[in-house]
Amino acid sequence: MTKQSSTYRALNTYTKLMRAAESVTARTSRVMTGANLTVSQFGVLEALFHKGPLCQRDIAAKILKSTGNMTLVIDNLEKSGLVRRVRDTEDRRFLTIHLTEAGTGLITRVFADVEAAIVAEMSILSEEEQETLGELCKKLGLKGGVPEAS
């Protein structure tokens, strides 16, 4: 193989990966926007729904966003009454983010719809192809020794 052909193949594969990811994300995020949620807001609600109360840093790591970006996202969710910040009684600098009753109700409903949209998107692939794609994505995500969020 020549260097040019391996470079071309890598760039071509990367382009296809990014286009596919953007395309699937655009289609599945319609459900989120229908519920007046951004992808980041949905990610925060989903993380809290499945993991329970978390600190802002852990949420950011879970959804692959910066902690600075999380402040704004959580501010907006708090203004909407979907989450609340709880200050630690031992260390007042430490805040834990909790779902409110309204947040739990919303994410319960929206998550089911997003899950159905994702299943529909992936149905174009066979079960074996989905497994293979998952393994390949995991391999790419772990390449630098930095684990991807699961």
Verbal overview:
Strand 2 and strand 3 form a beta hairpin. Helix 2 crosses helix 5 (101-122). The chain has a single domain (3-129), classed as Arc Repressor Mutant, subunit A (Orthogonal Bundle). The radius of gyration is 18 Å and the shape is globular. It has a three-stranded antiparallel β-sheet. With 150 residues, it is mainly alpha-helical. The protein is built from six helices and three strands, in the order H-H-E-H-H-E-E-H-H.
Helix content: 55-70%
Count of spatially separate domains: 1
Overall average residue pLDDT: 90
Q: What is the CATH class designation?
A: Mainly Alpha
Query: Strand order across the biggest sheet?
Result: 1-3-2
What is the correct CATH architecture?
Orthogonal Bundle
For the terminal residues, how far apart are their CA atoms? Answer: 35 Å
Instruction: Supply the CATH superfamily name.
Output: Winged helix-like DNA-binding domain superfamily/Winged helix DNA-binding domain
Rg, rounded, reads 18 Å
Summarize the biggest pleated sheet.
Answer: 3 strands, antiparallel
Shape: globular
Instruction: Write down the CATH topology.
Output: Arc Repressor Mutant, subunit A
- Given as residue ranges, the uncertain stretches (5+ residues, pLDDT < 50) are none
Question: How would you describe this structure in keywords?
Answer:
150 residues; Arc Repressor Mutant, subunit A; globular; 3-stranded antiparallel sheet
Secondary structure: elements and pairs:
Blueprint lengths: L2 H32 L4 H13 L2 E2 H8 L3 H13 L3 E5 L7 E5 L1 H22 L4 H15 L9
Antiparallel strand pairs: 1-3, 2-3
